[in-house]
Description:
The chain is of the alpha+beta class. It has two domains: 8-154, D-amino Acid Aminotransferase, Chain A, domain 1 (2-Layer Sandwich); 165-324, Alpha-Beta Barrel (D-amino Acid Aminotransferase, Chain A, domain 2). Helix content is 22%, strand content 26%. The chain contains seven helices and 17 strands. The chain has helices at 49-53, 76-89, 97-110, 186-190, 193-201, 247-258, 313-327; strands spanning 21-27, 30-31, 35-37, 56-58, 61-65, 71-74, 123-132, 145-154, 165-169, 206-208, 225-229, 235-238, 264-267, 279-284, 288-297, 300-303, 337-339. Strand 11 (225-229) and strand 12 form a beta hairpin. The longest helix is centred in the last third of the chain and has 15 residues, at 313-327. The mean pLDDT is 96. Pyridoxal-5'-phosphate binds at residues 60, 184, 220, 223-225, 244, 246-249, 283-285.
Amino acid sequence: xxxxxxxxxxxxxxxxxxxxxxxxxxxxxxxxxxxxxxxxxxxxxxxxxxxxxxxxxxxxxxxxxxxxxxxxxxxxxxxxxxxxxxxxxxxxxxxxxxxxxxxxxxxxxxxxxxxxxxxxxxxxxxxxxxxxxxxxxxxxxxxxxxxxxxxxxxxxxxxxxxxxxxxxxxxxxxxxxxxxxxxxxxxxxxxxxxxxxxxxxxxxxxxxxxxxxxxxxxxxxxxxxxxxxxxxxxxxxxxxxxxxxxxxxxxxxxxxxxxxxxxxxxxxxxxxxxxxxxxxxxxxxxxxxxxxxxxxxxxxxxxxxxxxxxxxxxxxxxxxxxxxxxxxxxxxxxxxxxxxx
Length: 341
Ligand SMILES: *Cc1c(COP(=O)(O)O)cnc(C)c1O
């Protein structure tokens, strides 16, 4: 397969259309068989449910080339399961996990020429999503839906090394108790845009959101989960019903325990104890882990002793081990790597 003539190292994180995308429609209570199409546009009625009441959910994962030349995806079944959970919460039909994985695999295979070569640091970002398509004006779930998967090549996340981020404790809330913080839905992002633009305007990279009920517990940022390392090298990650269950974070905890022999704790993390941690990172598909150097709470600064200049040592080890598993030079746990070709 000839690769496209793309300057892989200098790609950013912007949409670039690829050859094929997958489309399936839900009508009369069932999904059709789905097809790959070249048409990147969607034509919908002006009153489609997605436009009126934001009935849409999405996923994000990556395909990439391993050291021995295979195109693979990382744990796509977990994205399928999470989309099932998201769809149920928004009263949308479930796109079965096996079909989800098949659609992801087919779409990646059809765009193999856009999967960046090994060593470029670039990847093919895969975006499955679903939305209500028929006219809905009275408030209720749509009856018809479309499930799609498109891909777009994205550049290396850290160009010239990972520079630690500076976060601010946000005055905005991300998720309400018993709300939708635990699902991957555009609605959680729409209302985070003002908060992130405010953080950027004030010179911060990201927001740290606290729990909205008491504003004492650490939740997550707009699009990544927290991971902390204590001074005696325990890996700690916040547990909460209003956090999006990051697949990267769950994989890192497994790696910490089973590959690195570290103690791991998934528990409530109070903001008051953050100053006592040695290292802090943000985890998600895009960067795997981004180191956090500093968190600012209304003028009060918390600096992590190892991690202001570069990634701290334990976070670096976690990063190296998980990316080693993904790239194929460290043996992966059963079922983590889906070989596409
Ligand atoms: C997608 C997402 C994450 C990261 O999840 P991964 O599965 O690791 O990519 C974290 N927080 C939020 C709010 C997200 O939407």
